[in-house]
Design a protein that fits this description.
Elements (H helix, E strand, L loop, with lengths): L6 H6 L7 E4 L2 E4 L7 E3 L4 H9 L6 E6 L9 E14 L15 E3 L5 H11 L14 E6 L2 E12 L2 E9 L8 H15 L3 E7 L3 H9 L2 E14 L7
Parallel strand pairs: 9-10
Antiparallel strand pairs: 1-2, 2-3, 4-11, 5-10, 5-11, 6-7, 7-8, 8-9
Length: about 230
């Protein structure tokens, strides 16, 4: 099995174990880090384990091979096709389209702006402590954060590029390409392979990633679930 075939589980059992919680055959990131969770193997028992880690009304996001069919105490909020793409051309040159001072490494003080930008652009789940999953960089204009990208899932030999987003008023200026190039260069510099996830219907983003050297690896389902009750039904 390829390490990216069960990527959330593999991240939570290796490089990012310190950012999550586990019970039986389920693991999930702490709720203020990320909505993402995973199973060692999909089963009703795995959902029971996940239920133990999740409060009623709380949401969990899963990467699945097919539409989710959870037990009675879970509600499917969304299920959409999700492409996993991987960068494999390790000999391709990585050139920067911006000078280094254009980029700002984002830290704790930038979290409110990061939350505002991701809420507006919806690149995927982003929580208050998501930035602790890896390094994040942004581009500012007139002091305001207008674009960002960073690292999310990490496991030995692989790092995911995530939260690629640009404020709608600043589209078309190449910011996403510049930031992806920067993050990709850093990942490759560590001797790791970069990968990412993108909604299949986001054709503009898919085309950009393909131009940058990523290829489609597998089509998954992004399933967002909400726990509706405890086992007792209370």
């Amino acid at each position: 099995m390829h390490p990216l075939d069960n990527v959330i589980w593999n991240a939570l059992t290796t490089s990012q174990v310190h950012l999550g919680a586990s019970c039986g055959t389920a693991r999930r990131f702490l709720s203020d880090v990320s909505l993402l969770g995973g199973f060692s193997k999909l089963s009703d028992g795995a959902y029971d384990s996940l239920s133990t880690l999740t409060a009623v009304g709380e949401r969990v996001a899963l990467f699945l091979e097919a539409d989710p069919q959870p037990p009675w105490n879970w509600k499917v909020v969304a299920s959409v096709p999700l492409l996993q793409m991987i960068y494999e051309n390790g000999n391709a040159p990585v050139s920067s389209e911006a000078t280094p001072h254009t980029f700002h490494q984002l830290g704790e003080a930038d979290v409110p702006e990061m939350m505002t930008l991701t809420k507006l652009t919806k690149p995927g789940p982003f929580a208050r402590r998501t930035r602790e999953m890896g390094d994040y960089f942004g581009i500012r204009r007139d002091g305001t954060l207008v674009a960002m990208a960073g690292e999310r899932l990490r496991l030995p030999g692989f790092t995911e590029i995530s939260a690629v987003c640009t404020h709608p008023e600043h589209l078309g200026r190449g910011y996403a390409r510049q930031l992806i190039t920067l993050v990709l260069s850093r990942i490759r510099g560590r001797g790791e392979q970069a990968f990412l996830h993108v909604r299949e219907d986001n054709t503009r983003a898919v085309e950009l990633y393909e131009r940058l050297g990523f290829r489609k690896r597998v089509l998954l389902r992004y399933a967002l679930l909400s726990k509706t009750a405890d086992f007792s039904g209370d």
